[in-house]
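Forum: Protein Structure Q&A
Topic: Joint prediction for protein chains with partners

I've read a bunch of threads here and the consensus seems to be that you should model interacting components together rather than docking separate models afterwards. I'd like to see that in practice. Below is the full input, 585 residues plus whatever partners are listed. Could one of the regulars post the assembled result?
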Amino acid sequence: MKEILILSGKGGTGKTTITAAFACLAKNKVLADCDVDAADLHLLLSPEILEEHPFKSGVTAKVSKSVCTGCGTCADLCRFNAVTVDEHASIDPFSCEGCGVCEYFCPEKAIFLKDNLCGRWYVSRTRYGQMVHAALDIGEENSGKLVSLVKRQARDLAEQSATDWIIVDGPPGIGCPVIASLSGADMVLIVTEPTLSGIHDLKRVADLAKHFKTPACACINRWDLNRQMAKEVERECEAQAINVLGRIPFDEDVVNSLVKGVPLMEVSSGPAAVKIKQIWERLQKQF
Amino acid sequence: MHFEVVVPEADEEAADAAEIDPMKVAIASGKGGTGKTSVAVALALSAQGSVEFLDCDVEEPNAHFFLKPEIRLCEDISLEVPVVIQERCNYCGKCRDMCRFNAITVFGETIMTFPDMCHSCGGCFLVCPQEALEVGRRLIGTVELGTTGRGIGFVQGRLRIGEAMAPPLIRAVKARSTDSRTVIIDCPPGTSCPAMVAVRDADYCLLVTEPTPFGLHDLKIMTGVLKRLKVSHGVVLNRAGLGDDTLEHWCLDKGIPIHLKIPFSRKIAEAYAKGIPMTEVDKDLRDAFTRLILEIGK
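Posted by a regular:
Agreed with the consensus. Here's the joint model:
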């Protein structure tokens, strides 16, 4: 069983479009959407939810107003500027990191810690195989932990049903959720675009994959929007010893398939679909 | 090129920038790659008076490609993490019990710290009865300060590769703002902690989106976040003409203003690829951004 993680660094380069296309092309796989704070894969794969679970993580400090004397110890000790004190202390839940320092040192025992319900995660059935996905509640944190949870569930499912592939739609960036999504991946496919930003972000995500010793390959989406820059992307990949598996042309079928809410492969055999199919075939040979 | 300005024409008096109060405008999106940086740069280049640009997308900072600032100062930003003074530690385990992030473990006569897990709350230093912890530092990234050729103040953060925690670095970028008349904050994608830290305290948030189901789905989440943070907001619709009009109907239904529609244009896309701001390839677009910033200033 091999786990393929689709990343990009820069957002909006086509991670989810390509993941959904692979969902059609790969046989015998489990799918996972690890972009938990802006999860979109379900919009293309129309999952039928089989299981729904709460995701609890971390704590937030709360003040019992009737006990608090407003002494301000908590505000002095909080390093996250989450506490303001007038008559009583009050804690801004958006700034609270859940470290528990205020609770521990409150001389009146007026502060307690409440478990955070941060979101939900799902096991679903799609036309293309089983899928694990999640939704972080509005404004909640710990997305890295939710990513780890989604990946662990996807791996369990894949082991139970002895699938050949786990295909993971990753989050943008290079921070906490991306690092969490890298754990256990056998190969990263970096989806990039021929722009200065695309190249810059490709370098950073390639460095990150190296840092965690995960092999990486790349593909260039909408390459024909700037052919010269596409060559630069290829040069950069060569310098980083990353295989470029293909170049995908700009194709309005991609946007049209998004609007219809289906994977590209279902509605198009146009130039982008042809190239993505080729990339999937080459990707399998990377192992 | 054709585009449609949805805001009413600003009158002559409002066009006097001196009448607009200083304001912080955050540019956010939920979905990545919708054009946050392009819009943020266009706004900065179209605003009157003193302008400052904060690139808070510290995981992938890209605005410098368009604004080409001269960087005059680069600061390392680090978090305080515990370092054990072995000969003082008596392995009581109070620091381990205090730490909710599993950054310290004690078993038998061994104590280990995991600096990457540390959130720098300071709890372990406070509970240690032996004064056996001293302050060490974990580098999380750098903050760079400079000025562009047009006199726009520029601050950006750059997260160290392998570092998970973007929010403290975003706070460091924002802390270096000098509160110019107009502060433009380029936010990271997503809707969780990094995006929230970046948009907080903004006077207004422009949500840049595109007319696709992905754009709409992530816009819905982001408007929920902004409601909770009590930040007023409106939409810039990028790549108008691609996709469908579901998103516009949704905005209309929810009373969320669409301030500007920027049609998909190969000319803009090609300029973007090379690091050229869209306002430089289209003067009308620049006027539209000037009107937009006056409009949201009211």
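Chain A has a mean pLDDT of 95.
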